[in-house]
Amino acid sequence: CLGLRTKTINGVIMCRTNRPAPGYEPSVNGCGSGWNTYLVPDADYSIIGKIFGVDFEVACNRHDRCYGTCAENKNKCDRNLQSDMKSECDKIPSIFFTAKLRCKLMADIFYSAVDNLGEGPFEDAQDNACAWDCCGLVGRMGRCYKCVAVLMIKV
Fold first, then answer.
1. What is the C-alpha separation between 50 and 39, in angstroms, rounded?
2. Does the global pTM surpass 0.90?
3. What is the DSSP string of 102-115?
4. Greatest alpha-carbon span in the chain
5. Which of 1, 30, 53, 69 is 20 to 30 A away from residue 86, measured at CA?
6. Is the CB of residue 96 less than 8 Å from the CB of residue 48?
7. Tens of pLDDT along the chain (155 residues)?
């Protein structure tokens, strides 16, 4: 009908807006969710990572909140995740350069994963975070009608 993200409820075509859904608060769950929860660590569990307290959970929760903020930019959310994780890696002193490099490579892998596989979760989060408005009605023979107050105009 309009080329926007839509869903149909009882013949009414609803379009996702760029306005926050009233009362919606984004949820957070650390790093990973669903099937990959046990594959995606919340911290650098190497001995060096543990000693210096490298913890990715705050970065992952910030990423979850970003995805769940209406009209947010996915690329910005993903880049911030990478940057926040690399900042955690900076807790490792440079003398442990291989451990620090390994940690930063983990951040790059996380970034690559959300950049390449995160479109669905991002759109799902946006669907929950943003308000939906009527943008049309499905009429006879599948024709689309715009919602204009109470009037319907055939398009």
1. 18
2. no
3. HHHHHHHHHHHHHH
4. 72
5. 69
6. yes
7. 444 788 887 777 788 999 999 999 999 998 877 766 667 778 888 889 999 999 999 999 999 999 999 999 999 999 999 999 999 999 999 999 999 999 999 999 999 999 999 999 999 999 999 999 887 665 655 555 665 544 344 44
